[in-house]
Amino acid sequence: MTIYIDKKKISLNKNGPYVILEAGINHEGSISKAFKMIDDASKTKADAIKFQYFELDDFYLKNSKGYNLLKKMYLTRLNIYKLKKYSEKKKLLFYVQLTREVHLIF
After folding, report:
1. Residue 88 falls within a domain, yes or no?
2. What is the pLDDT along the chain (106 residues), one digit of tens a residue?
3. How many whole angstroms separate alpha carbon 43 and alpha carbon 41?
4. What's the domain range around 100?
5. Do the domain assignments include residue 1?
6. Looking at the domain assignment, is residue 4 inside a domain?
């Protein structure tokens, strides 16, 4: 059986695994850390990198303890877009995990 992901042939018989590095929210809300994660990922044999995107209001009431904690790990839609473009420049496929369907509209 053979499948393709972004034009890369994935087969049980040949080729190595398709490697996606999970960045998640490990950037801690820092766009510079997120760019560094992409730089580091591009130096490996990874095929892709995956971040998470969420809207703060989807989880907590404003100014609650949880809201303020999550706010420290938040990247804006514009930042996610910049990361996508940067990933493409580094030849990494960019994935983003969304918490709601409405976030598909960037």
Report:
1. yes
2. 777 887 777 766 666 778 899 998 899 999 999 999 999 999 998 999 999 888 877 777 888 888 888 888 889 989 999 999 999 999 999 999 887 665 555 5
3. 5
4. 23-104
5. no
6. no
- CA pair distance 80, 12, nearest whole angstrom: 33
The kind and range of the H/E element at 3 are: strand 2-5
8 A C-beta contact, residue 95 and residue 49: yes
* The model's pTM: 0.80
User: Maximum distance among all alpha carbons in the chain?
Assistant: 53
How far is it, in rounded angstroms, from Cα 42 to Cα 61? Answer: 37
Assigned token pair, 34: 């997120």
The total number of structural domains in the chain stands at 1
Q: Is there a contact between 69 and 28 (Cβ–Cβ < 8 Å)?
A: no
